[in-house]
Amino acid sequence: MTGCDTSFLHALYLIDSHTPKARNRLRQVRHPEERIALSPFHVYELRNAVRLSVFRGLREVADAESILQAFQTDLADGRFELPICNLAIVLGEAERLSSVYTISGGCRAFDILHVATALQFGARDFLTFDTKQSKLAQAAGLKPWP
Fold this sequence. Notes:
This protein has one domain (2-145): Rossmann fold, CATH 3.40.50.1010. By secondary structure, the protein is mostly helical. The chain has 7 helices and 3 strands. Helix 3 (40-55) packs antiparallel against helix 4 and helix 5 packs across helix 6 (109-121).
């Protein structure tokens, strides 16, 4: 199983400089055990980012609705794994990671939650375009990509 952060999902759905690399990585998933695992944190954060992009004037409401629908379709079609996550375990691991890495690494709360969730899911790899998150993932024992 593979973990990710929202920078990876952002590149897939909101289009940025990392989009070609993210889409190519998603196409490389061949086996169920390689699937990208998402938690409710990912789903919420991506949907909120899409809505926030409308507020910021970066896209029209209709475009945002299309993006949200594409994401929903991919979820329904099983393009991502949606394992059950134990919130108490995730928050406990997030607190541990925060106590060890936030002061020295400047980690944000949702970034820590994504790494903690990946660990709870038993992920080996972690997809992110965020340099700080990549360092956190590696320090936590995950193999960051790219």
